[in-house]
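[Q] Does anyone have a clean structure-token version of this?
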Amino acid sequence: MYLFSISFTGFFVTWLLLFLAPVDRGSAPEGADRVITAGNLQAHVTYLASDELGGRGTGTEGFRKAGDYIIQYFKSIGIQPVNGSYEHHFNRYRLSLADVESQHLEYVAPAGMRTTFNIKQHFLPFLASGNGDVTANAVFAGYGLVLPKQDWNDYAGKTVQGKIVVISAGRPGFLAHKNRSLLEQLGTSSRIREAVERGAAAVVIIPDLVKQSGMTPQGYLWSSLMHTRRSRITPTISARKGLNVVGVNRVVVNALFGSLDTVRSMFRVADSLRTPPVFDLRGKLRVATALKFDTLTNRNIIGLWPGGDENLKHELVVVGAHYDHLGISRTAVKGDSILNGADDNASGTAAVMEIARAYTRCDIRPRRSILFILFAAEELGLVGSRAYTANPSLPIEDHVAMLNLDMIGRNNPDSLSIGGVDRCPELKQINEEENAGIGFTLAYNVESFFYRSDQASFALKKIPVIFYFTGEHKDYHRVTDEADLLNYDKLARVARLAFRTSWRVADLDHKLQYTEPGYGSVR
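[A] Here you go.
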């Protein structure tokens, strides 16, 4: 009896503990991701990347059709609108030259001889340029960088108040493979801000002559601005006011410095000595720019799958991708001028749509809500995602994580690049655990792409992010990026991984923590 009593008691206690213990709902229901199929993904990509949609250039009829297609699909599978709408509206601004005759760049030599450069052929205003006409002495300020922790200051001992600052688009050689956390500081916007704060009258940016970057085959810095019709000068950004900023090509560099080799040698010496090359240029420069911004209304596409926990459903895990591409090319290749953008980014768009469907087919819900966002105008500078994070449909503090899918259908069938997770080690761990059932070889090698896709807009709000990416290829931004070149089995596996990871994050009993990125934290 005693033994039986012990056994019965042990059985009863064990049964009671099992009955009362909380069910581990962390992972998605078994088999839920099988709803995501290669066939469904291929059907979406085939339509989104069809000639009918004309390359989905932001603001075009084909782009509108793509947005309508996504909305109708969301409605058909039961994804809910947000605040009564599947659209997140924002204004964008089309930049164009007010008139060619008002754009000037001139070099006035000490003896008074003038060299006049031509708009589009030799120089172009930067997207951040203000309007005005300035003639002033010029100073060469190296890279235009001030990096105290790296003991680098291109303005050390030099006053640039009221002068035109000339800087290189490059960066010191010792920073070439280090300090991912400096990427924002090394950006053009930061350099322009530095010049503004120091009272510069204008900024002239020359190409990186050491790496030969920043120059197209035609010698232009901004090939996307090289359209013959004003209505086709299409980079679209928030309207800005500030000093004149122009980018120049090698012809201007030759005139200012004597030769390209002189500049290359100067930078190589400066890099080896860790001493910024800063000096006054002989003569004066005239910089005149006249830009205008046309206000256009655009839309991101949004949809909501509410969470199952009344106390947590206000928190949002974002699953997103950009659905725009580049539209029509100015030059045809074998009679084809449509930049269909199958991998970039019909692949990510299709994945978000099928991840949404997978959620709607589950009998249970994760604790938090899933917010699906298809961004507009990513190709124009992350405009849609920046607009959303600046003016979100739901409180930005309730956005607890963001998973971004961009170009996820090409290259090695078993490899997948992951970005952004050095900002949240726990998100990296969750993704790796879920990948155990998918089988990708994960590579953390895409930080250089981080600020080129929409997850960056959320990371700048200190929201944990993860970036899924299968790499560039020879068809990137070409008319040959067609639907029949994608590996749809791989695309389905990436989408399943994102679905499983997003579910895990949405079902945590705590929020993920954002940490500032640091070099070397992810290998």
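[Q] Thanks! Anything notable?
[A] The CA atoms of residues 31 and 362 lie 10 Å apart.
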